[in-house]
Design brief:
The protein is mainly β. The protein starts with 14 loop residues before the first strand and ends with a strand.
Length: 189
C-alpha cells in the first residue's frame, strides 16, 4: 500500500494505492483506495493520511492539533477499517469513542461512526484520552487518587468472533490486572 508520494499529492490526501496480494507476491498495478476528508488547513507532512499507527499533526488557523489513526478490521467484516483513535480537535475521540471509517470494496466510508469505548477512571494529560491508540502493548499514564499510574492495553480478537477486543493488560491502580488477570472489554460487531 502506497500511502504517500511526493510526485502525486492525491496519495495520502484522498486516496492510497493498494497493490493486492496474490499469495506469491503483489500485483504490478495498484488500485485506488479512497480516504475520508479530515478537516485541516495544512499538515505536518503535507497530507493527512500519509501513515497510520503514529501520531501526526494538522494545522487549523494558527493552532496545531495532533491525531492518531490505525488500520484494523474493527467492524469484523474482513475488510480493514480506518480508525481515528485520538483527535486534538475533538477530545471525545480516544476518551469516549473512536471514529470508525468502515472499509468498503474500494476505500473507507467518508463518514465516521462512533465506536464506544469503556470508561477508565482517572485524570489524563492534556494531549490524550485513555485509549488514544490501538497499537499492541502501548502504555499511558493517568492520575488516580492523586497518584500518577501507568497502564497498558492491546487490541486483539480474544473472543474469537472476528471483532477486536480491548484488553487492559496492566494497571498500577489495580495491581491484580497483569498479575492475576486481564480486563477484557469485548468488541461488539
Amino acid at each position: 500500500m502506497l500511502t504517500r508520494d511526493d510526485t502525486d499529492p492525491s496519495i495520502g490526501d484522498h486516496q492510497w494505492l493498494v497493490y493486492e496480494g496474490t499469495g506469491t507476491g503483489f500485483v504490478p498495478t495498484p488500485v485506488p483506495w479512497t480516504l475520508p476528508a479530515l478537516k485541516g488547513d495544512s499538515w505536518a507532512v503535507e497530507v493527512p493520511w500519509y501513515w497510520t499507527h503514529t501520531e501526526t499533526w494538522r494545522f487549523i488557523g494558527e493552532s496545531d492539533y495532533s491525531y492518531d489513526a490505525s488500520t484494523l478490521d474493527l467492524s469484523g467484516d474482513g475488510v480493514l477499517d480506518l480508525v481515528l483513535t485520538f483527535d486534538g480537535v475533538d477530545r471525545s475521540v480516544g476518551a469516549e469513542h473512536w471514529s470508525l471509517y468502515e472499509g468498503t470494496e474500494d476505500g473507507f466510508n467518508e463518514t465516521a461512526t462512533a465506536w464506544v469505548l469503556p470508561e477508565l477512571p482517572g485524570t489524563y494529560s492534556d494531549w490524550s484520552g485513555p485509549w488514544y491508540t490501538t497499537d499492541a502493548g502501548d502504555w499511558a499514564e493517568r492520575e488516580v487518587d492523586g497518584v500518577e499510574t501507568r497502564y497498558s492495553w492491546s487490541t486483539l480478537d480474544f473472543t474469537g468472533d472476528a471483532v477486536p477486543d480491548l484488553v487492559l493488560t496492566s494497571d498500577d491502580a489495580d495491581l491484580a490486572i497483569g498479575d492475576e488477570r486481564w480486563n477484557l472489554y469485548a468488541g461488539c460487531p
